[in-house]
Structure formats: structure tokens, C-alpha cells
Amino acid sequence: MEDDLGSCQDDEFEQRVEQLEALDAAVGDSIDTDVEILSALANETRYKIVRLLEAAEGELCVCEFAPLLDVSDGAISHALSKLTDAGLVTRRKEGKWRKYRTTRRATALLIALDGARESDR
């Protein structure tokens, strides 16, 4: 009589499970980082900030985002902080201003998203 797994109780299955467990352990190390990065982009304001920074091909100050985003300055600062924590933008201080720019990680993600969108057409 077969169990619920059908014929999956042989030695090959056990070996395959061991292989998959090793793969799971290897993948598991990067999952938290990946989820943090994707979570940072999973908000319209944060995603738009990254897109604007990438399109600007340089640095932008918090005050430059205000006319483009329909959110408070505090929300912009919070969004930039989360994007910085996720490694998607960098900031530097210039006098009393903080300038932001995208990282290579953000650029790579945007290229991948653009490519995925294009492949659906």
C-alpha cells in the first residue's frame, strides 16, 4: 500500500532531500537580505524615490523630492532612511544638506524590473 507521498520513500528520495536541505541552507543565508531589499521597494513613495534618483543620474536633496511626491517631508526622510538601510541609496552630507544617490544594487534591480516588464510584451 502506497503512503501519501506515493513512491517517494526510496533511497533516491532521501538523497534528494539531503541535497535540497543543503541548497536550502545556502539560500537561507541571503533570504533575509533579499526580503529587506524587496520590502524597501514595496512602497510607492520609496519606489518612486529610487526611480527619480536613478533618472536624475546624480544626487538629489530631500527638498527636491517634496514637489514631486505627495507626502510630508518626514515621510520622505523616513523613506530615504529605509532605502539607505536596505543598501539601495547612499547619502552624504554637504553643509546642512543631505544628498542622496542610488547604489549599484538599486540600479541592478531597476534594470531587472525593466527587463521583466519588457519580457511580458
Automatic annotation (TrEMBL):
InterPro entries: ArsR-like_HTH (IPR011991), HTH_ArsR_DNA-bd_dom (IPR001845), HTH_MetalResp_TranReg (IPR051081), WH-like_DNA-bd_sf (IPR036388), WH_DNA-bd_sf (IPR036390). SUPFAM superfamilies: Winged helix' DNA-binding domain. It holds the Pfam family HTH_5. Keywords: DNA-binding, Transcription, Transcription regulation. GO terms for molecular function: DNA binding; DNA-binding transcription factor activity. Residues 26-121 form the HTH arsR-type domain. PANTHER family: TRANSCRIPTIONAL REGULATOR, ARSR FAMILY (PTHR33154), TRANSCRIPTIONAL REPRESSOR SDPR (PTHR33154:SF33). This is Transcriptional regulator containing HTH domain,ArsR family. The gene is arsR3.
